[in-house]
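Saturday, quiet lab. Running sequence design on the structure tokens for the scaffold JK sent over.
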């Protein structure tokens, strides 16, 4: 079984690879299909946008990640990608509302976000039990031994594969209709991630707080409703 230090080093390695992959992926997509769109967006959002986005993602990641662990009886500091997405989205929408900015501004982050999730979740998988992202025990042939000789659902791997499929679809849309991607891409990405994450959470041993739902599932439902509403609004902007 991995020690906490080993798990931390493994996760940090994958986090660094994920960050580099996100930057590389974002730059390639920008040069490939989004170069003419980004200057227009930058003029609309101002520099405060990035401050609000960063603040929201950091606070959301640690707040909801730690809250979920606390409610599950695990006294540790946690981080959560769904919490980061929720926090960043909330803060950006508040900023845009105050500034009067209309339309989607998150499309430039879609590919980097997907890459971060795909690679970052592999870090969760290989970090073992110490990462606290393992699934419940299973008798399936593909069950994963996280170090305690118990086969569990490799939920992080499920999520990584799911987002890889979404990445392929996103690149296909970018190739065919860049206008659809810039208008709806971010909202569809958020909705897709929230839906698949909602179902994977049923395979994790986290504490329920509302019926059968845990903290992350409640956040997922909020993000699904957000994406549906914003897709509807984007049709008329």
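Result came back. Writing it out in full:
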């Amino acid at each position: 079984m991995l020690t906490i230090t080993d798990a931390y080093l493994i996760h940090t390695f994958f986090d660094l690879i994920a960050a580099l992959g996100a930057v590389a992926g974002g730059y390639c997509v920008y040069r490939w299909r989004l170069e003419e769109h980004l200057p227009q967006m930058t003029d609309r959002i101002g520099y405060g946008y990035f401050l609000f986005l960063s603040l929201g993602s950091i606070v959301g990641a640690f707040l909801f990640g730690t809250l979920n662990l606390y409610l599950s009886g695990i006294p540790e500091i946690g981080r959560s990608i769904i919490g980061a997405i929720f926090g960043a989205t909330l803060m950006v929408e508040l900023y845009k509302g105050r500034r009067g900015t209309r339309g989607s501004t998150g499309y430039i982050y879609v590919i980097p976000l997907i890459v971060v999730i795909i690679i970052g979740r592999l870090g969760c998988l290989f970090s073992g039990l110490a990462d606290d992202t393992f699934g419940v025990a299973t008798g399936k042939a593909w069950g994963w031994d996280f170090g305690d000789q118990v086969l569990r659902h490799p939920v992080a791997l499920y999520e990584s594969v799911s987002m890889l499929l979404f990445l392929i679809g996103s690149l296909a849309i970018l190739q065919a209709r860049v206008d659809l991607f810039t208008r709806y891409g971010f909202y569809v990405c958020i909705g897709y991630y929230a839906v698949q994450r909602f179902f994977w959470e049923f395979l994790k041993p986290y504490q329920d707080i509302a019926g059968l739902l845990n903290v992350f599932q409640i956040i997922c439902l909020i993000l699904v409703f957000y994406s549906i509403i914003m897709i509807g609004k984007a049709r008329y902007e």
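Notes for JK: Strands lie at 144-145, 151-152. Helices lie at 4-34, 38-45, 48-71, 81-99, 110-126, 155-176, 178-200, 215-234. Ask whether to fix the surface positions before the next round.
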